[in-house]
Write a structure and sequence with these properties.
four-stranded antiparallel sheet; alpha+beta; Arc Repressor Mutant, subunit A; three-stranded antiparallel sheet; Jelly Rolls
Length: 210
C-alpha cells in the first residue's frame, strides 16, 4: 500500500503524513457499481482515491437522483469531510463508476491532521474549492443549459472518466443521472444519432463526433 500512497499523494503530503496514512489507512478495492456511501448514513471514514472513479449523487424528495460530480484518483469528497467533521448523516450517495481502489481514513484523524499538517489543510481546502466549483457548474447546467447541451456534456464527461468512447449505460440510467425521464433522454439520443454524433446500440452508446 505504501507505494500506492506515495505514487498518488507523494507530491501533495509530507513524508510524516504519508507514513501515518500508511499506518492507519485501510486499503479497499470495490467493483464498478458498488455503493460506498448511502444517504442518511453516518460516515465513519473518508476515502482517498488511488485509482478508478466515484460518482456523487443527490436525491430529491421523490427519490429521483441527480449526478453532482465525479471523484478521481488523488482526490477526496468534501461533502464526506463535512459529514465527518460534524458527525452528521450523509446527504449524498457515492457509487463506484469504475473498479476503484481507495484508502479509507478513520474520521478521528480529520481534526488532528488539520491542526498538525499544513499539507492536509491545503488538501482539504483545495477539495472544498474544487467541489464548490463543480457544484456551481451543475447548477449552471440545470439553470442555463437545455437538455441537449446537458446530455452532450454528460456523454463527454463519461467518456473522459472511463477513457472510452463507448458508454455502457441504459437510457434510464442516464435519465436518473440527469434528473430527467427516459422518454426525453431516448428522444435526445436518437436526435444525436440522426446528426451523426453518436451511434445507438442495444446495450451501449458509441460516441462518433461530440
Amino acid at each position: 500500500m505504501l507505494k500506492e500512497i506515495y505514487d498518488n499523494y507523494g507530491t501533495i503530503f509530507e513524508k510524516e503524513l504519508l507514513d501515518e496514512i500508511a499506518a492507519i489507512g485501510i486499503f479497499k478495492e470495490v467493483p464498478e457499481g458498488f455503493k460506498l456511501i448511502e444517504i442518511g448514513e453516518y460516515i465513519k471514514s473518508m476515502p482517498l482515491l488511488v485509482s478508478g472513479a466515484i460518482k456523487i449523487l443527490r436525491e430529491d424528495a421523490d427519490g429521483d437522483e441527480l449526478l453532482l460530480y465525479y471523484l478521481e484518483k488523488g482526490e477526496t469528497c468534501s461533502m464526506t469531510l463535512t459529514c465527518c467533521m460534524a458527525n452528521s448523516k450523509s446527504e449524498i450517495r457515492a457509487i463506484a463508476e469504475l473498479n476503484t481502489v481507495l484508502i479509507m481514513i478513520p474520521i478521528q484523524k480529520m481534526e488532528e491532521w488539520t491542526a498538525k499538517y499544513k499539507t492536509w489543510r491545503n488538501f482539504v481546502f483545495d477539495s472544498y474549492h474544487k467541489r464548490v466549483n463543480e457544484l456551481l457548474l451543475t447548477v449552471d447546467s440545470i439553470a442555463f443549459q437545455n437538455m441537449d447541451e446537458r446530455i452532450i456534456n454528460y456523454l463527454k464527461e463519461k467518456s473522459r472518466i472511463n477513457k472510452d468512447d463507448t458508454i455502457h449505460n441504459t437510457h434510464q440510467e442516464i435519465a436518473y443521472d440527469l434528473h430527467s425521464s427516459r422518454v426525453v433522454i431516448s428522444r435526445l439520443l436518437k436526435k444525436l444519432e440522426e446528426m451523426g454524433k453518436i451511434k445507438l446500440h442495444r446495450n451501449f452508446i458509441k460516441i462518433i463526433d461530440l
